[in-house]
Design a protein that fits this description.
By secondary structure, this protein is mainly alpha-helical. It is about 50% helix and about 10% strand. The chain starts with a helix and ends with a helix.
Length: about 210
């Protein structure tokens, strides 16, 4: 633009140039991605028993499940259901030395990747359930479930339960839980057993002498 034209422009006032601009702001569109619902879907799949292809007999109670899901989650289930010793068309398995409630809680974790809800973990029966679940997790090679149980027991350890908990931790190779138990014994002025002395009867005798 030539200066002569600019000087006669209505946009030039008092030696100031007025420039008018139209600005369009485009707001970024964000796609809201919901959290994964895989565990919820698998949980509903298990609850429905649809397409269940294996049954477990647990102290007279029948529990149905899905071979593929069990095999993916547990190396022990995989060996039982698809290993060389499985036998032909194995669709029924007897579960020894486990209560039905414990086995059902185990399957709850297998499908949902979480422990079943327990309203009050300070109640004795719920503490015992966590111990049984730890044993079951170790038995079926569910390491994450085992660590969840171990963590819960660490948080709720007391003098009354330290004996059996230490023996449990030693038997099932729970190093963190074992360390917490040993620290609790020392803090309460109790002797710390080693090796075979960590058995339940010996630990209970130690506590009986102390109290």
């Amino acid at each position: 633009m030539r200066r002569s034209i600019l000087e006669t422009s209505p946009f030039l006032q008092d030696d100031c140039l007025i420039i008018e601009c139209d600005v369009t702001v485009i707001k970024a569109i964000r796609v809201q991605v919901p959290p994964s619902d895989l565990s919820e879907n698998l949980g509903r799949f298990h609850d429905s028993k649809e397409l269940a292809d294996v049954t477990f007999k647990v102290k007279g109670e029948i529990v149905r499940a899905h071979k593929a899901v069990l095999a993916i989650r547990s190396p022990v289930f995989k060996a039982q259901l698809y290993g060389p010793m499985r036998g032909k068309k194995r669709t029924s398995i007897n579960v020894e030395d486990m209560e039905p409630a414990v086995f059902k809680a185990l399957l709850h974790f297998v499908y949902r990747d979480s422990l079943p809800a327990m309203d009050d973990l300070d109640r004795d029966e719920n503490k015992e359930m966590i111990k049984h679940l730890l044993v079951a997790a170790d038995r079926y090679g569910l390491e994450r479930m085992k660590l969840l149980c171990e963590s819960t027991l660490c948080k709720r350890l007391d003098v009354d339960s330290v004996a059996t908990t230490l023996a449990l931790a030693d038997q099932h190779h729970c190093s963190s839980l074992k360390d917490v138990c040993i620290r609790s014994l020392r803090e309460n002025g109790l002797p710390v057993p080693v090796g075979k002395a960590q058995s339940v009867p010996v630990m209970q005798s130690v506590l009986a002498i102390r109290y």
